[in-house]
UniProtKB/TrEMBL annotation:
It holds the Pfam family PTA_PTB. InterPro entries: P_Ac_Bu_trans, Phos_Acetyltrans/Butyryltrans, PTA_PTB. The keyword Oxidoreductase does not apply. The gene is pta. Keywords: Acyltransferase, Plasmid, Transferase. It comes from the Bacteria. Its EC number is 2.3.1.8. The keyword Transferase applies. This is Phosphate acetyltransferase. Belongs to the phosphate acetyltransferase and butyryltransferase family. One of its GO terms (molecular function) is phosphate acetyltransferase activity. Residues 108-321 form the Phosphate acetyl/butaryl transferase domain.
Length: 339
């Protein structure tokens, strides 16, 4: 590694014990930088942004629009949206606003825009996730396409040579086996869109051997066999794997695990929402990762950002949606041409 460091000398004499010496943390998110460059050459994704009625959600959408990642349509209470714009000192005169007072009505109106072909993706603003997903899952002109909706974090972890996908950390609380099948398949589909041709998927448990007393280890083994038999397609799936031997080759070899996935997993499938949420936040706050969030399994990408997200994470979430939409759309066009 090469670079330049600016060091400011202290104005008074300081002394430290060895254990108290300040550390150096390199925060470089090259995977997201590359992703943003890849997304910028694509046409902006038209996104129905639901209830961007406070500064964070509004600012994130406007930031993505400035970087030519999305063309937003704001769906929500016009008065609150304009007040949020004034609070952050931004003009929204060039943005279409669909004035809708109630959040549930706004979510349904946004889904209407997608059904009418006016928007290509959905983005969560300042409303409850349940209200947004309930509209997406409605029976009439909804966004269902035969799979469970699942959430995927795309993490850019400093030091890792590839993006790391973590799923499901936000929607499915205690998924059963068939829900996990959709969780795995959705994550594989997204990883392929991000440029990983055959994603290596590690199914996490507390142990790397099957133990009937630990249900997640049994599910992991079943998912691995289902992928082997073609019931899950597009990736290499292995489990159960513990966290250490999923990501660290030395740990995998020490425990005698011979696997293409062990030590090299690009997708981590967690046993349940508790584990996934804790893992994603540990990567963010301890490992200094940035995380982009996307809901998969619907007809269109659903962008999920958090109020705690920084600018890079907000942009990356929109970039992930744009890149995935571009691949899926091109595949659909190719399939139609072959018919």
């Amino acid at each position: 590694m090469r670079g330049e460091a600016l060091v400011q000398a202290p104005s008074v004499k300081l002394s430290f014990d060895d254990l108290d010496l300040p550390g150096l943390v390199v925060q470089r998110h090259r995977h997201f930088d590359a992703l943003l460059e890849r997304a910028r050459v694509l046409p902006p994704l038209t996104v129905a942004v639901v209830a961007p009625e406070e500064p964070n959600s509004l600012g994130g959408a406007l930031l993505a629009a400035e970087h030519h990642l999305i063309t937003p349509i704001f769906v929500g209470d016009r008065t609150r949206i304009e007040a949020a714009a004034r609070e952050i000192g931004r003009s929204i005169t060039q943005v279409e606003i669909v004035d809708t007072s109630w959040h549930i009505a706004a979510a349904n109106k946004a889904v209407d825009l997608i059904a009418a072909g006016r928007a290509q993706a959905l983005m969560k603003g300042h409303l409850h996730t349940d209200d947004l997903l309930r509209a997406a899952l409605r029976k009439d002109n909804g966004l269902r396409r035969g799979r469970r909706l699942t959430h995927v974090f795309v993490m850019d972890v400093p030091g890792l040579t590839h993006p790391l996908l973590v799923t499901d950390a936000a929607i499915n609380i205690t998924p059963d086996l068939m829900t996990k099948v959709d969780i795995v398949q959705n994550a594989i589909d997204l990883a392929v869109s991000l440029g990983i041709p055959e994603p290596k998927v590690g199914i996490l448990s507390a142990v790397e051997t099957v133990n009937p007393a630990i249900p997640s280890s049994v599910d992991a083994a079943l998912l691995s066999k289902m992928a082997e038999r073609g019931q899950i397609k597009g990736g290499i799936v292995d489990g159960p794997l513990a966290m250490d031997n999923a990501l660290d080759l030395k740990a995998a070899r020490t425990k005698g695990i011979s696997s293409v996935v062990a030590g090299q997993a690009e997708v981590l499938v967690v046993p349940g929402l508790d584990a996934g949420n804790m893992l994603a936040k540990q990567l963010t706050y301890i490992s200094k990762a940035e995380g982009a969030g996307l809901v998969m399994g619907a007809k269109v990408p659903i962008i999920m950002t958090s109020r705690a997200d920084g600018e890079k994470a907000r942009l990356a979430s929109c970039a992930v949606a744009a890149v995935h939409h571009a691949r899926v759309s091109s595949n659909t066009v190719a399939e139609l041409a072959q018919q």
